[in-house]
Design a protein that fits this description.
The chain has 313 residues and is of the alpha/beta class. The chain has helices at 18-21, 39-45, 62-68, 87-92, 105-112, 146-155, 175-185, 195-201, 221-226, 244-253, 275-278, 293-312, and strands at 4-8, 26-30, 51-54, 74-77, 96-98, 137-142, 160-166, 189-192, 204-207, 232-235, 258-261, 282-284. The protein contains twelve helices and twelve strands. The model has no long low-confidence stretch (mean pLDDT 93). Bound molecules: nicotinamide-adenine-dinucleotide (NAD).
Length: 313
């Protein structure tokens, strides 16, 4: 029987690797080091592969597909984001593409909301739950998909009653969807608005739209200037959506209260001397939104199943 060559760009750990290594119908080629897979190594090793399992760090473009050659049937990424993959090129060549939605939604939503519960021992910020002087709170979402909705579910118990969001401009607003979400989460208002209104009305703005050119610097100087001075910005999607220089200036000059960032443009080259890391009203995490053991095993398992579906299907 034919053995299909599959290339894996990162070790998936002892819980998931056996799903691949125990199969007699696969020839597994694994990047041997515990760091980002080297591009040159990858291009050399994918020659003749039927399937490749990659991380966000691997660019999937024409050069990659040329290097793989005509056997390639599937590319499976262990991420919900897919801005590193040229989907048109994959489709043109009839190569299937798999990603890992849903399994990470709860972990990222858990991380998205505690970022702005400021410690009384360092500095005080606006209270998260409703108060008598401020009886309702408004959450704003740039991108209102799976993780955004799971984040809203976590905010409602804290007194958030209003939800504003912006959506993909190529998809028309749907008031029936807004009414359905309001009923589901028991909030007074769910409404799709312009970016200007979102900035102006939100107590906390969550950035949860996909990366890539269409959302580049969607949070720019104009957006930040439009925010409440007590407002907080939380970005757990991709660093490219927020203009870092503008955010640094905004925090220094007090256009908004603070920011919580799991992602920063330029990562992984964001070091301790980065202005946002040094900024006292900014919490920066090293892109760990989906880093719970359960979620990482779930992502790796789904990525393997997507790979096997393409290789064997
Ligand atoms: P999703 O596809 O369910 O939601 C994204 C939403 O953004 C969709 O509703 C889409 O219509 C909307 N959108 C697209 N273009 C837009 C635009 N220009 N303006 C406003 N909205 C737009 O995805 P999800 O599972 O909720 O994940 C959201 C993003 O979070 C991913 O794309 C990924 O980049 C990021 N993410 C980060 C981590 C992390 O570790 N921090 C983990 C998982 C996902």
């Amino acid at each position: 029987p034919t053995r299909h060559k599959v290339v894996i760009s990162r070790n998936l750990g002892p819980d998931v690797m056996p799903l691949l290594t125990q199969r007699s119908d696969l020839e597994i080629v694994l990047w041997p080091e515990n760091r980002v897979c080297d591009r040159k190594w990858l291009l050399e090793n994918i020659a003749g592969a039927t399937g490749v399992l990659v991380m966000l760090s691997e660019k999937i473009d024409a050069e990659f597909l040329d290097a793989a050659g005509p056997n390639i049937r599937v590319v499976s990424t262990m991420s919900v984001g897919y801005e590193h993959a040229d989907l048109k090129e994959l489709a043109k060549r009839g190569v299937r593409f798999g990603y890992t939605p849903d399994v990470l939604t709860d972990a990222v939503a858990d991380l998205s909301w505690p970022n702005f519960t400021w410690s009384p021992f360092s500095f005080c910020g606006p209270q998260l739950s409703a108060t008598s002087t401020h009886p309702s709170r408004t959450a704003g979402f740039i991108g209102f998909g799976r993780i955004a909705q799971a984040t809203l579910a976590r905010l409602v118990p804290f007194g958030f009653t209003h939800c504003l969001y912006t959506g993909n401009p190529s998809i028309a607003p749907d008031p029936a969807f807004d009414a359905e979400i309001a009923a589901k989460y028991n909030v007074r208002e769910v409404r799709r608005v312009s970016l200007d209104e979102l900035a102006r009305e939100s107590d906390v703005v969550f950035v949860l739209a996909p990366g890539g050119p269409s959302t580049y610097h969607i949070v720019d100087e104009k957006f930040l200037k439009g925010m409440k001075r007590t407002g907080v910005l939380v970005n757990t999607s991709r660093g490219t959506l927020v203009d870092s220089d503008a955010l640094t200036k905004a925090l220094r000059e007090g256009w908004l209260w603070g920011a919580g960032l799991d992602v920063v443009e330029g990562e992984p080259n964001v070091t301790a001397d980065h202005p946002l890391v040094k900024e006292p009203r900014c919490i920066v995490l090293p892109h760990i939104g989906s880093a719970t053991t359960e979620t990482r095993i779930g992502m790796a398992t789904l990525a393997v199943n997507n790979l096997l579906g393409g290789v064997l299907g």
